[in-house]
Amino acid sequence: MNANESSTGEPAAKILLVEDDEGLGGLLLEEIEDLGHDARRVATAEDALDVISDWLPDVVVSDLRLPGADGLALLAETRRRLPGRSPDFLVITGFGSVRKAVETLKAGAEDFLTKPVDLEHFQLSLRRILEKRAMREQIGRFRAASASGASFHGILGRSTAMVSMFQQIRLLAKADGPVLVTGESGTGKELVARAIHRESKAADKPFIAVNCAGIPESLMESEFFGHAAGAFTGAGKARRGIFAEASGGSLFLDEISEMPPALQAKLLRVLQDGLVRPVGSNREEQVDVRIIAATNRDVESEIREGAFREDLFYRLETFSLRVPPLRDREGDIPLLTAAFVSEFAAAANKAIRGVRADAFARMESHHYPGNVRELRNAIERAVAFCQGREILPEHLPPRVVRGKSAGSRHDLPGGLAAGGIDGDSLPTLEEVERRYIRHVVDKVGGNKRLAASILGIARRTLYRRLE
């Protein structure tokens, strides 16, 4: 066991025990130390305040009845002295003081236990408190990271893939040509288009987003280029088109592969000379608009099938940008999770602090074919179902709880995907097992208790196999 790790596989914590009963105090102190935590014990609230100020423990386990000031007074004074940095409190009380213990919970304690103390319940309560604290600290770090550069025009990410994309956006924004944004569904292509616009010299000019799949083909030309009065039945007066409305700024054409070939030819004309002709008009209008197009399809396949013009593709491809899928954004799921939990919990007026460790492990192991949109929807559902202060596995969509979709190359760790094995390097069963165990341990951040649970083996067995 690592010196900085408890016997549960979690980081060792600093725990202060405030108990004047020698027998119970000695028993609980030994239990805390056996769990691998750094423990100290004092007998009074007054002594506890001195230790708390100097040592800054993570958790205070305190009897409610103490010589002098009681546990409730200790909690109140600690919170007064250390606002925002106060340790979590686990209160122990006699059966007759349960009402007082509830009062302590309302004052800010995390949990309480009644005497005689059941050691299994004590371990469970302590572990839950530490997990909650770890999640709060994690969310705090993510929010700090967001405020210090992990957010780029509303796009959250600090992975290597996203940092590289942010730099590409900055460079592309300085150019004047059209941009083709590619990426799977749900990766946030419109957010990327907006970021390109905001980084450009036209940031204070219009940004208009259009979903090409959402406009009937019969209305597309009129919507894009406008029409003259009397151009067709119902056209009582002239109307400016989207290109003219966006002139001076940026026009985002989402799902551009859904645009019919005839309109693609007219779009190419706009890209080449900046001229549009309203339907039913003999006059052309000059527009100055930057086209940012996006698609989740394989455009080259669309070209081979005759669904997309090759000349338009090459005109758009001058400046192309691929938005990475969530599975390629190593380390971004915790950041996104924290942001979405905070957003939806605030909207629902719920005091949800975060995601419990076992639920978060399931979330990280999921493949997310729907990318960031799927993760966001999963958190929205979880917040709606959550009635407590933590999101649990049962609050998540079943597909997320089940983990990665079967058959994916990303399902297998350490080069064991079907495409990563050749006849000369087939690993032994023992090697596959060793790699998979290490993969699971890495995925849950070294939490061996969770890893053992996921693997379906005892924690002692896991330690033995790791050795």
Could you name the CATH homologous superfamily of the domain at 160-323?
P-loop containing nucleotide triphosphate hydrolases
What integer is the average pLDDT?
84
- CATH architectural designation of the domain at 160-323: 3-Layer(aba) Sandwich
Biggest sheet features:
5 strands, parallel
| Spatial strand order of the main sheet | 2-1-3-4-5
Helix content: 40-55%
Number of E strands: 16
Low-confidence stretches: 405-424
Name the shape in a single word.
Answer: elongated
Multimer state: single chain
Question: What is the first-to-last residue Cα distance?
Answer: 10 Å
General description of the model:
With 467 residues, this protein is α/β, with parallel strands linked by helices. Among the domains are: 14-117, 3-Layer(aba) Sandwich (Rossmann fold); 160-323, P-loop containing nucleotide triphosphate hydrolases (Rossmann fold, 3-Layer(aba) Sandwich), CATH 3.40.50.300; 412-467, Homeodomain-like (Arc Repressor Mutant, subunit A, Orthogonal Bundle), CATH 1.10.10. Helix content is 47%, strand content 13%. A five-stranded parallel sheet has the order 2-1-3-4-5, sandwiched between helices. Strands 9-10-13-8-14 form a five-stranded parallel sheet. Helix 5 packs across helix 13 (332-347) and helix 13 (332-347) packs across helix 15. The longest helix is centred in the first third of the chain and has 32 residues, at 119-150. The chain starts with 13 loop residues before the first strand and ends with a helix. The model is unreliable at 405-424 (pLDDT under 50).
